[in-house]
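Weekly modeling sync, notes
Attendees: AB, CL, MP (scribe)

Item 1: holo prediction request
CL wants a bound-state model with pyridoxal-5'-phosphate before deciding which constructs to order. AB pointed out that an apo prediction alone won't tell us much about the pocket. Agreed to run with the ligand included and paste results into these notes for async review.

Input as submitted:
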Amino acid sequence: MTAPVTPPTGTREHPGARGPRAPLDAAAFRARFPVLREQVHLAGCSLGPRSADLDAALTCMLADMAAHGAPWQRFEERIAEARRLFAAFVGAREDQIAIVPDASTGAFQVASTMDWGARRRIVSTMAEFPSISHVWLAQRPEAEVGHVAADAGVDEYAASIDRTTGLVSVPLVDYRAGRRLPVEDIVAVARAAAPGCSSTPTRQVPADRSTCRPWTATSSSWAR
Ligand SMILES: Cc1ncc(COP(=O)(O)O)c(C=O)c1O
């Protein structure tokens, strides 16, 4: 048995869960990432700086494993809590949230539910993150994949989407240029040109502000 761990933030049951709070300003947000006091974090590719909340959660997980061996029940409780908090954060219902290892796996889960028989066209963009792009490309030959230019506007999406389109994939942010894409306008165009098609933006679009379904987000690669 090990002594209970007191994490630096939150509670032992829900590390990082701090309940209702005022919006953080930039300085307060940066303070959640202790490493940024010493270093400039430039490795944005799939590995963000660790937050104090992440460290606390990992410390608790190791303590649980040391004390209980295989504490699956506790793990399940943590996952349920993460789902509840994330649903509240993005304005979704808990049963709309699936927790998967990363956004790329989420994209694969989306692809695996699609029937490319009737609507075999996937419209993506050269601004798509490569690991997401490869999920779409792996659907060939059952699906065909078209790419609009990285800086394409809504009109170019409209020209590429037709009634054979089953999926439109749009990143909220171009990972190379840091430019935000007009996701909501593209979704509107997709819905008009291909009623019923899925549009899968990746990144932070609060579910209540978006008509996108499904939507994948990742927490491993960005400071948040
Ligand atoms: C814009 C964008 N989409 C998707 C991904 C892939 O996310 P994950 O590593 O969670 O699969 C990344 C990763 O950095 C990204 O920057």
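Recorded for review: The chain has seven helices and four strands.
Action items: CL to compare against the apo run; MP to circulate these notes.
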